[in-house]
Amino acid sequence: MIHKEGISFLSTLFLLMMTVAVQGQQVTHGTWILGAEGHYGFVMAHRPSVQPLQHSHLGGMMITLSHQADGKRTWQQHFHFPETGVKYGFFGLGNKEQLGYGHVVYPYIDIPLGRSEKPFLHFQFGWGLGYVTKPYNRNENYQNVAIGSHLNAVIAFNLHSEFWFTKRDRIAPAIGLTHFSNGSTAMPNLGINLISAQLHYSHSFGEPKSIIKQESLPFENRNRFTIFGAWAFKQVYPLAGRTWYAWTLSPAFLRQYSPKSAAGISVDMFYDPTINYRLEYEDMKTQGTWSNFRGGVAGAYEIIFSDFSVILQMGVYAKNDWKKDGLFYNRLGMRYRIYDGMFACINLKTHIARADFIEWGIGYNFNKKAWN
Known about the structure:
The chain has 372 residues and is mainly beta. It starts with a helix and ends in a 7-residue tail after the last strand. It contains 3 helices and 17 strands. It has an 8-stranded antiparallel barrel. The protein has an 8-stranded antiparallel barrel with strand order 10-11-12-13-14-15-16-17. It has 2 domains: 29-205, Porin; 222-370, Porin (Beta Barrel), CATH 2.40.160.
């Protein structure tokens, strides 16, 4: 049986915890944050053919330069004053002979998952460039079936906690994934996935800034109709070295239901000349140029950071003559408003875990007032 004194103590403790949870941070820890982090992990064998490339565990070091948002822009309030910055890293890939080393550089955003002054979890996401020193080469490095180019796109994310042991110094243990892929611009392109435990140390410099907090205003739901066209280039098996050019046209309807989120549906039309090529190579029935057209419908979710946003889509093909890619496709993309209703975008189109191509596009939002 719990005594009244125990109930009173627990109630007081609960109220104290709630008070701490809703108490917001009043100032930043400094103007700039300089950090270093170590990585220790392994190359994930996401395909059986990648497993022979796993020779040993990998290590890596990264340096970071960042600053915490002070709330001057509305979107910073919505995401609880995130940290934004840039990272450079150097990795051993656990196989010096066939994979070599990896370099990465990318901007990132670090979002607190909670409203308290010191939330337990943070989510960090970045997208940039990577360089692999030993890609596939048919004469000298044919064992590397994972990546076919020196230059690649890199997507990285982690979940971490933060522990401040002074007002300017912190450590942050994390677990995360770093993904190298060239989007099928050069074959092979199974990709390199690094799973690693991470430990980050950082020190804040400069004068702290007061955090501006504004009262949340009621949000009115908004409709958005957009369309974008994109160009892509890719290679396919067999490894003949030929580059093909693909095109995308994608109108979409989105409903923005909060200052930071929108959801809706897109209709995607793709022209991919590798389809007819692959059908003919395998002596399968073709319909000429018509075989190169694909069509699908996708559910879309958009995360909005003012003029910049991240797009996540899951689609199903309504027309697809190349069945080996499966029924479903995905899109992970970034958009940036460049003028009025016009935006530029870069998207990675995949079939679950296999890259199809990188879309380089430009689009238009017909309801400019709906843009947050």
